[in-house]
Amino acid sequence: MKMKSNITMKVQQLSNGKFRKQVTYGKKANGKPMRKSIVGDTELEVIIAAEEFKRLNVDVNPSKITVKEAVEAYIDSKRNVIAASTLYGYEVAAKNRLQSIQGYFITDLKVIDIQRAVNIDAERGLGYKSIKSAYDLIRSAASIFEVELPSARKLRFPPKNVKAELPDLDKVLRVIIGSSVELPCLLAVWCGGMRISEVRGLQFGDIYEDDGGRYIRVRRARVCINGHDVIENRNKTELSTRDVPLPDYIYNLISKVSHKNDDDFIINENYGNIKARYDRLLKKHGMKMTFHDLRAQFATTMNGLGVQKEVLEKLGGWANSKVLDAVYIRTPKQRVRDSLKIFDDFMYGVIRDTRTEKTDGAA
């Protein structure tokens, strides 16, 4: 139940020795105030419960909180502190997935109830990731009310989709180089495996020189939500905020992009347009690979070339079971550049071959 006001009444001691505080949180259709009466054994207990009711917009007694209310409270508690894209994903999941249990009180949920909801969504065609992430959201929401729901291991989800094997990177590069999506694609696959939102968030002022090399700062994301761009002056994770060596080839491509100010975006184009041209280009050459797969190509190729995972994690901003090492080990910029030179040599070799092939073909 959403509140419209935070007007409260004083704590009263009842004849039975307990304490009560009424919270006014809005008005009914007839104009009369909507009040919630909170009762506890001590005055402090009642005051804390009342403040929690106001903050979370729901009754703090778990036995009176529905799944829908718990999830809404959880999402509200995360506003302005998590990425807009993550928040949007939560809202989509809350609105469209596991709907058959939304009216249950969180303390009443049983494995059989959750499994039925999973089965319904699976029958609708939703896959493992969509359903599992929706249940993870519900479990997290219940946890803020100190209710532990059954582990996901007790449920049966649809089987995970087997990821298709990606085409070799050199073949992909031969298609991308010289195309209209060359710059965004190379930023994604060559500069630390950037996400498309990070690529679109890069500004000309993010480029700088230091310690004998040229770098680009990854400091923000430009996310497309419901067809509109949302600029987030933060990255998806703390480790995603990073400085990545900028190869001369990409710097030269960027130098050809006209701009007026340092805060102009390097890739100032709608996400949908980039994706459409990228998809058409790969389809034309018989390839199927998402733009985000370029990030995977970066990691796979770097690993295959023998680059240390410590350096790879720093470049790509990944967090995994080795988070401790990734956070606390200080990797010198010179070491990063030396390791990346192996990848640079690979990339320049493909570029030279591709340019030669296209020139010979034109002749």
UniProtKB/TrEMBL annotation:
InterPro entries: DNA_brk_join_enz, Integrase-like_cat_sf, Integrase_catalytic, Integrase_recombinase_N, Tyrosine_recombinase_XerCD
Residues in Tyr recombinase domain copies: 157-341
One protein family per Pfam: Phage_integrase
Keyword DNA-binding: yes
GO molecular function, one term: DNA binding
Entry keyword annotation includes Transmembrane helix: no
UniProt KW keywords: DNA recombination, DNA-binding
GO BP annotation list: DNA integration; DNA recombination
Source domain of life: Bacteria
The protein's name: Integrase
Organism of provenance: Ruminococcus flavefaciens
Lineage of the organism: Bacteria, Bacillati, Bacillota, Clostridia, Eubacteriales
